[in-house]
Amino acid sequence: MKVGGQAVIDGVLMMGKKIVVAVRKKDGEIEVRELGSPSFNSKWLKIPFLRGFISLFYSLYFGMKALNLSAEISSEEEIKKGESIFSILTAVSLAIGLFIILPAYITRWLGFRDNEFTFSLVDGLIRLAFFLIYVYIISLFEDVKDVFRYHGAEHKAVHTFENGEELTVENARKYSTIHPRCGTNFVMIFLIIAILIHSLFGLFGTPTMLARIILRIVALPIVAGISYELLRLFEKYPKIRFLALPGMILQRLTTAQPSDSQLEVAIVSLRHALEIVEVSNEVNLKDENQQRDYDINEQPEFLG
């Protein structure tokens, strides 16, 4: 069985037999919440390319849910639903503007207009540059650095499980904060595949700027599907894993060495996700949703 996870505020989301998020509270206690699972028919998660988009949606859905919940637990302040929806819409709008619309207009301003392959190449390189600059800038903030440490803790915990060792802080310390199935790798693959897919639009003539932007948004599921399949190939065949090297290198920035306290949170989250731990007095377990009707062998495998 494969497991996946994401770093959140003062905690870690883990996907195993259950989907849970563990968060370190201000008083030092670790609180664990079960988030449940959507009722996806497993047959859809077996269809190549389509499963990539479904897995991405699945991971984003629970990632946002866990992020909001972790913010509430760590701050001990309730986040209103309206505020949460506004934050999501704002983030999506900024992402589309910064990584789709702005690069396209900069490319046109630079004079690349007629050759769609050249346009897509320059547009993609600008988008990649924006992403790298964005990651570097946010990595300078202490709160984000803390999330990156939990990201490293998440990877160490998963490595421990995948190597068949008991899930303890002592065992997890020695493992790398880098993992080939990380979402950072997926993003890098996504950005490169997008250049190739967007260049194919030129086979149907030179589109207008509006058409280019719409086509880039519409093509997101296709690019996600292809990127997901490549990510699986890189994990299955280590000899070609060098193709994912850019994403592995970028993980040096998006992960950091965690403290034992942060490793403990990741371990607790994973143990509860795998249902291999009894609830102790030190862990407050609250069921958020008890849905269990999903195939654990076909769930998304992203690591955040």
Beta content: 5-15%
Helix content: 55-70%
Total of domains: 1
Assign the structural class, choosing from mainly alpha, mainly beta, alpha/beta, alpha+beta, or little secondary structure. alpha+beta
The end-to-end span amounts to: 18 Å
Shape: globular
Contiguous helical run count: 10
Q: Give start-end ranges of low-pLDDT stretches.
A: 279-300
Rg over CA atoms = 20 Å
* Helix and strand sequence: EEEEHHHHHHHHHHE
Description:
This protein has about 300 residues and is α+β, with helices and mostly antiparallel strands. It has one domain (about 5-285). The chain has helices at about 50-75, 80-110, 115-140, 140-160, 170, 185-200, 210-220, 220-235, 245-255, 260-275; strands at about 5-10, 10-15, 20-25, 30-35, 285. It has a 5-stranded mixed β-sheet. Strand 2 (about 10-15) and strand 3 form a beta hairpin. It is globular and about 60 Å long.
List the main descriptive attributes of the protein structure presented here:
10 helices; 304 residues; single chain; alpha+beta
SSE inventory with pairings:
Elements: E1 4-8, E2 11-15, E3 19-24, E4 30-34, H1 50-75, H2 81-109, H3 116-138, H4 142-162, H5 169-172, H6 183-199, H7 209-218, H8 220-236, H9 245-254, H10 260-273, E5 283-287
Parallel strand pairs: 4-5
Antiparallel strand pairs: 1-2, 2-3, 3-4
Helix pairs in contact: 1-8, 2-3, 2-7, 3-6, 4-10, 6-8, 6-9
How would you summarize what this structure contains?
By secondary structure, the chain is of the alpha+beta class. It contains 10 helices and 5 strands.
